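Changelog-adjacent note: as of this version, every example in the card shows the full chain rather than a window. The one below runs 311 residues end to end.
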Amino acid sequence: MNSSSFHGLNHSLMRISLAVLACSTVAASARAGDSSNTSSSEPVDLSKVDKRGYHVFNPTPREYMREMSTDRPDKTESAYTVDAGHFQIEMDFFSYTRDRDTSGGADTRVESWAIAPINFKVGLLNSVDLQTVIETYNFVETDDRVGGTKTRQEGFGDVTSRLKVNLWGNDGGSTALALMPYVKSPTNQDQLGNNSVEGGIILPLAVELPAGFAMGIMPQIDFVRNFGRDAPPTEIVNTMTIGHGIIGDLGMYVEFFSAVSTEDDSPWVGTVDIGFTYGLTPDIQLDAGVNIGVTDSADDINPFLGISLRF
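Full-length structure tokens:
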């Protein structure tokens, strides 16, 4: 495929993403309007409702749906699944990353943009959802100020498939735990990835705390490709996030992220992340935040703006 075909594919995918977003917004707004007509009814205690009979072809009724829970904007994944037979879209409008490396006499600056990356979810069963994460368009510019070179890469990224299984707490309780294996497929253009199939497993835990605080903890094991080695190294990720409402439907979180590889002499990646969420309706949530690197190997700064919709 030539360069013009790459650009045509990227533009088509971006148009599709925006079209899906527009249609989803209309659907979610309509759903919110329907829910407002029944808002006077008493809330249902979902812990007393048997929802095992609902599936992708027999959707959960509106009155039995749990509060929307998203895997964004923090890096800690949610322990809750999308209700059976319903769909959820979570995406960045944009995500910008900047990093400067001056170690060992180097002076390299990397700037990157991710435009409209999207996580499309479908509830298969009451406690199982399927997710497809698509890196719609990436742009990376690397400026080597010592070598006097500047390179640019752009195009479609990788596609990741994930299956989330809630083990307990989906419809009630002070804690919830899920298991989420994933596989990354090497679909990237212009050397934006390592062109290898990789995978891992994620264990998100949600805990209700006193005074309206909520905590999320997420250990994650990634099996990554390392060229030139017989056995692939394992990357260990740990995150912890604390969230609380501010006023009305506005909330905030603070998160700590840590990643370290089992490979010898691998650097530790650490960030402190801060963000806000605002629920426009029960099915539409806006978010914005910034991830700040606190170790030399982490990206210096990563601001983003996004949206989540359920229908």
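Structural remarks: Helices lie at 3-36.
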